[in-house]
């Protein structure tokens, strides 16, 4: 490596970064001290959203490869980058503490000057939700959020929605898991045998009986979900994960101790943590907005906190994985895997 | 001070504290490693609940004194202890990260052995909610939560409900605020003049006109709330804060810059932060429970997360203060206080 | 307010912010995934440094006013903005968790391409230290850090060093505190009576006797410091705070319960918290650098962690305030203030 | 599982836990409000120390098994529990925020009543350091800390020091890593061939040449360390990790992408994080003590912060692993492993 001559300020483009704050209250000759905080915290959020999109794209790229479902270095990289996303999301939650050092009265000094700008115009955040797997039709208040965006930004989100999301890639990856394949077919990924026959069928049949107790104490809609998971692949058109994929995920959770299932388990776990941090962020965000503007109309022209509340309940992207925890049974009651299966899931 | 001879272990009663963990899974000869974490984290929570109750009692005692509404050292102590409560609640939220290092499968190893024990039997937490101002009739799922508790614990909560809560004391303290009294009456706390007459009436009449814009863009139920705040004291039997008290709180928010209003503003702000941290704790707690047991029945015999979800929406104790932020107007549009009023709110 | 037409992206200058990341590893056709994180986290740090400088400048401006040492709204604003700085610094400490998701091997992929750029070239951070009160002559490794900077950046720091720092303004503000003035002179700020005579002299004489015990158990250099604090103003040329100012600070700590001393106490407390968070940030930063590059030479051309270690011990800006805690005595042993003094420190 | 009848309060032994707070200031009829916080926060710390000891013991037990160095479920459990320890340590750092809500004046109200009790009498924390691998001879201020403890507590720590520590077990585990063994010997753990001969010798010889550049820019004592790592096992009697073990650790860091090295890398990483969190805790603890008592003598009879400062520099338990990061080279320059070696580190 020939010695380069990089300077800190040039490298970080600080001329652009540090001269990009133009408070509206100055333009109106009504300077409001806290508007600088308001601008800088949103710019920091957008920088982190860019980083999150960068990580999610790299994860999607790796998961698109056919060979990822053996424990290749790539899968370790997927886990590493997903857990980095979790770490970043925790920081974004913490960042709300800084925003809350602005009191409602301090915000009032300039909030009317920002209309109709609003955090709901953050196309990066919506693109992030889309890349993870949130579809337009699943969004709360679709018309509203479209109405907030200009066409070029809508196009960016649309594009993100049209790419293969992490959720879609997760489904394909889980369906490829050849736990119940013949050893000979271990490495090639032909369509798997239908659930109606072969070892998988038998395994899950046993499992359903073992689980019957847990099923009894579950809620009704949960029992229905349980059945679709063990029914054939055609059920539940509204679902993002096929029964086959759900069974693979459940199998990973149940037998995560086996070497070959350790990283896959970490993948599932990281995705649930991402969902949880996203929802924590929405919740703290909602509380903060409520505290800041009470029941007023937000600068975006509608009550932001209603949107946030709706999103809170509807935007769980990996909910189908989360629900599988209802179907776990005690380790000591688990079916013991055959020696051959054990070898398959081990390293030798 | 004669030199005592205190030993660390005796002082902290470590013999009792460190020998109080008896995993059920050991009794059943089915040792589950993670049960120790489960016990210790709950014991840590209960220790902190005791501390929170200790602080809230001391705050209530101070606020019961008639003279507290000048800026006495006591009021500073109230602010200091309320913000300590906020700091502790933030720690309790963080503590959920530790609980989440337990996976659903690890919990399954012993959860059935705990029936019917359940976190909903934490009478200290319920007593804390009650001391702050949550009344029994406002609780979500009253019958359910009673059904979870033994009589002696119910009595503890009842006792807490029957004492004057922080919310009640806040109302009395705010009603005593003699902002619009005659200077001569400054120090004595006789019943204040009715709002229909005198300077207060005039002030708020002006204020309503100034605010009309904000009112226009508020939601319907908010407009109604606005009117009750400025109507006579008899309206809204369901309310915990009288119109008079709400007006005093609003006045404090609007003119917090005045020396005499600085600590009162910090009191209101700390109470809102306590509500926010409590609700964040409930939300993270709910997500954690969901992730841990899915849609199963909790050890307590019912779905804990439904209870938590209900509590989430209903248990905002200082909501009436929070709503007042809807009625703020820009500083630059505020009525300028009379010189006499200014002096009253200053130090000389 | 005429309705403006502000758009989110334009308002936040996202075109500039989100297109300011140019990884060196791309230029070298050796793309390193983690360089994007490296760039974005440093840009986020610089955004927050700008905000901290913005707050510190506004605090300095307020503290430059002669009238600030009665409890005016300005003093409340000072407290509010200093504690906001504490909140931001806690976020910057947390941000290190994100940096630590980059492993040493991942950093190695591009670190050599960054030479000689280095975090030590962050002139904003050095300007922040200077504005708070760190003088050039007190810096660890002066030559080194100068060698890292280009002239225009050195000039920025020099300029910051030449303005009145918070520490200097704190000294002037404390010296103005007229606790022991004649009531008549309450509001004018003439030079105070020398400590050798008058009520202040008598007060501290009593205090020294009461404290004698504490002094006995203090370290030697601490005893010397104690004496200089109560000696005349000419002692200790190396000191940033005059004995007169130190006595005022000590008085505030001892009698903070009095209304007039409540905000001043919060000012002192916030400044100590800023120092503590800055040092925590340096410590975590040092650990992180150590973990990242071991004992290698940093990209800046010298071992960064040695610089950080040196700064860690030397860069406590408000150390002279912190040391005063050694001279406190139990509340119950405090000299009772005269009725007249009590009135002066109260509101009536 | 027959339905048990466990009650929350009995299960958690709340009678013992919640009635174990006896403020000294009450006994002296000089009640100090904040002593309750002081007691409860220390009890919470001791509860968490018990949990940390519980986890470290379970990790030690697993690492004592001969077969742990293939990727068995046990190794995953080791990683899981070590990272749980990191999560708990982060909470303990956060807990200092709560302690800091106590001001020096509030502490003064009761601190003299606690003599000679002191946090340095926490035998659980010292046992934790010992179980991780800190030896008595490496401790800062050995005589001092012994003088603080009663014999029965000293015995507890001695016992912990005499058991095989995580550091010792790490060394044995790393030495067993048969990366350069003949394939046929893969599963048995006979003493490995001396470094002077065979594939390992050749591999590291190549590596030293590749690294020469990095060595040039390292510090002197680091170059010496580098040489000992590649010298025979007899060098450096003061060392806790043998050269053979260090080379294995370095190999794991360099080639962590290989399936078989993924969990071992996570083990090393978690141990470094534990060290880092422990040192962050010591640093924040030291700052807090400094702020609380200034330069006074601590209740333990000596200046606590000096002890903490000394410990800060000396008590890095896994420093020898941390230093290896100095010897990494860019991935693209790494020696490509032979096909046979690759297979060994893969799953087939």
Give a summary of the structure in a few sentences.
Chains A, B, C, D: Pathway: Amino-acid degradation; L-tryptophan degradation via kynurenine pathway; L-kynurenine from L-tryptophan: step 1/2. Chain A is mainly α and 348 residues long. Chain A has 17 helices and no strands.
Account of the 3D structure:
Four copies of one chain form a homotetramer. The two termini of chain A are 41 Å apart. The longest helix of chain A is centred in the C-terminal third of the chain and has 35 residues, at 259-293. Residues 182-196 of chain A have low confidence and may be disordered. In chain A, 48% of the residues are buried. Chain A has helices at 8-11, 14-17, 24-27, 35-63, 73-99, 104-111, 123-132, 142-147, 151-162, 166-176, 198-216, 220-230, 243-254, 259-293, 304-314, 319-323, 339-345. The first copy, chain A, has one domain: Up-down Bundle (Methane Monooxygenase Hydroxylase, Chain G, domain 1), CATH 1.20.58.480. By secondary structure, chain A is mainly α. Chain A contains 17 helices and no strands. At the A-C interface, helix 1, helix 2, helix 4 and helix 5 of A face helix 1, helix 2, helix 4 and helix 5 of C. Chains A, B, C, D: Belongs to the tryptophan 2,3-dioxygenase family. Chains A, B, C, D: Its EC number is 1.13.11.11. Chains A, B, C, D: InterPro entries: Trp/Indoleamine_2_3_dOase-like, Trp_2_3_dOase.
């Amino acid at each position: 490596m020939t010695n380069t001559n990089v300077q800190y300020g040039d490298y970080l483009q600080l001329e652009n970064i540090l001269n990009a704050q133009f408070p509206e209250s100055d333009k109106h000759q009504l300077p409001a001290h806290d508007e600088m905080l308001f601008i800088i915290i949103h710019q920091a959020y957008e920088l982190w959203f860019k980083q999150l999109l960068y990580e999610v794209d790299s994860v999607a790229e790796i998961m698109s490869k056919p060979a990822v479902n053996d424990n290749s270095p790539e899968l370790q990289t997927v886990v590493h980058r997903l857990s980095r996303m979790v770490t970043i999301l925790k920081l974004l939650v913490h960042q709300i503490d800084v925003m809350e050092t602005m009191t409602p009265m301090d915000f009032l000094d300039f909030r009317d000057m920002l209309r109709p700008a609003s955090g709901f115009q953050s196309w990066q955040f919506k693109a992030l939700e889309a890349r993870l797997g949130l579809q337009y039709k699943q969004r709360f208040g679709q018309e509203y959020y479209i109405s907030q965006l200009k066409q070029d930004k809508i196009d960016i989100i649309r594009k993100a929605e049209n790419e293969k999301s992490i959720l879609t890639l997760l489904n394909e990856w889980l369906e490829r898991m050849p736990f119940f394949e013949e050893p000979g077919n271990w490495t090639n990924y032909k369509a798997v045998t239908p659930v109606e026959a072969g070892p998988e069928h038998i395994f899950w049949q046993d499992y359903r009986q073992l689980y019957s107790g847990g099923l009894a104490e579950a809620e009704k809609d949960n029992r229905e979900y349980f059945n679709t998971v063990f029914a054939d692949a055609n059920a539940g058109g509204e679902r993002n994960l096929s029964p086959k994929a759900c069974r693979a995920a459940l199998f990973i959770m149940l037998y995560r101790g086996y070497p070959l299932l350790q990283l896959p388990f970490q993948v599932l776990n990281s995705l649930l943590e991402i969902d949880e941090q996203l929802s924590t962020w929405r919740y703290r965000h909602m509380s903060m907005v409520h505290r800041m503007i009470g029941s007023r109309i937000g600068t975006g022209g509608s009550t932001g906190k209603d949107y946030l509340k709706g999103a809170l309940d509807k935007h769980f992207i990996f909910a189908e994985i989360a629900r599988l925890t209802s179907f776990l049974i005690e380790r000591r009651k688990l079916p013991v895997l055959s020696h051959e299966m054990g070898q398959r899931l081990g390293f030798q």
